[in-house]
């Protein structure tokens, strides 16, 4: 009796030049067949934006991750002083290796994307900044999903993502600046900081009582979301929220 073959747990939805520096990148959605077990995010499909020509580990060590992270302060310098919550030698490396082995089909047509998404929500940029991928590609993916969340540190230069993504802000000053430019914001707060006007604690965070999951909340969907308020989360909450699913086997 032939052993049944597992359905691929994701697909490639973009392969081409980075919109940040022109380097070759790949964007992969995972969790389409076997979703994350993370209690906070729920079964959101995750998207991984990486260099296509080298592993994410090598990209971080050489500084080539600028192609997918841009000017994000959490990159560090060639991996030194890195404060990004993503552990690249775990889920990103597994996903990248799976893509290089040809385990994921390439799906780009809206009708096919809708079938592949199968009524799921999607997070734009589980690793890598959505600004590295053409906005029209994200529009097609979001069209195929039942909801989305998204975050970008490139809000100063990526106006096309305003309707889809939250401006990722690391200070009250950045939050004020991004909001003044028409962005909804997602701010990482330090202990003791107060919420800004028109800002609430992330409903899925520990400090807010974990009232919901990201896949149900969908407040972090840029200006196209029903929610119009800005979101904030304590630094420890932001780290724990994303590290759990990054440490799972994504492929």
Question: What does this entry look like structurally?
Answer:
The chain is built from eight helices and nine strands. It has one domain. With 251 residues, it is an alpha/beta fold. It is globular, with a radius of gyration of 17 Å. Helix 4 packs across helix 5.
User: Can you tell me the overall shape?
Assistant: globular
Instruction: Kindly provide the radius of gyration, computed on alpha-carbon positions and rounded to a whole number of angstroms.
Output: 17 Å
- Strand order, biggest sheet? 1-2-3-4-5-6-7-9-8
Number of strands: 9
The main pleated sheet reads as:
9 strands, mixed
Domain count, please report it: 1
Please, how many helices? 8
Order of helices and strands: EEEHHHHEHEEHEEHEH
Distance between the termini: 26 Å
Beta-strand residue percentage: 15-25%
Return residue spans where pLDDT drops below 50 for at least 5 consecutive residues.
Answer: 237-251
Instruction: Report the average pLDDT across residues.
Output: 89
Structural class designation: alpha/beta
Q: Estimate the helix proportion, in percent.
A: 25-40%
Record keyword descriptors for this entry.
nine-stranded mixed sheet; 21% strand; 251 residues
């Amino acid at each position: 009796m032939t052993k049944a073959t597992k359905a691929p747990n994701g697909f490639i939805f973009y392969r081409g030049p980075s919109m940040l520096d022109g380097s070759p990148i790949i964007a992969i959605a995972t969790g389409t067949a076997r979703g994350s077990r993370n209690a906070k995010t729920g079964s959101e499909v995750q998207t991984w934006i990486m260099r296509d020509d080298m592993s994410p580990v090598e990209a971080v060590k050489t500084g080539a991750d600028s192609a997918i992270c841009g000017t994000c302060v959490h990159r560090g310098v060639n991996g030194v002083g890195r404060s990004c919550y993503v552990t690249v030698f775990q889920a990103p490396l597994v996903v990248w290796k799976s893509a290089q082995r040809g385990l994921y089909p390439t799906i780009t047509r809206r009708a096919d994307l809708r079938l592949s998404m199968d009524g799921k929500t999607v997070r734009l940029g589980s690793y890598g900044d959505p600004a590295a991928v053409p906005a029209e590609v994200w529009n097609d993916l979001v069209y195929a999903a039942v909801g989305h969340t998204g975050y970008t540190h490139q809000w100063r230069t990526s106006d096309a993502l305003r309707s889809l993504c939250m401006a990722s802000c690391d200070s009250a000053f950045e939050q004020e600046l991004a909001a003044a430019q028409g962005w909804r914001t997602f701010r990482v707060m330090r202990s003791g900081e107060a919420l800004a006007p028109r800002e609430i604690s992330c409903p899925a965070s520990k400090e807010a009582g974990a009232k919901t999951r990201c896949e149900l909340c969908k407040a972090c969907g840029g200006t196209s979301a029903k929610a119009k308020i800005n979101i904030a989360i304590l630094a420890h909450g932001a780290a724990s929220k994303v590290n759990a699913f990054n440490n799972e086997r994504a492929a």
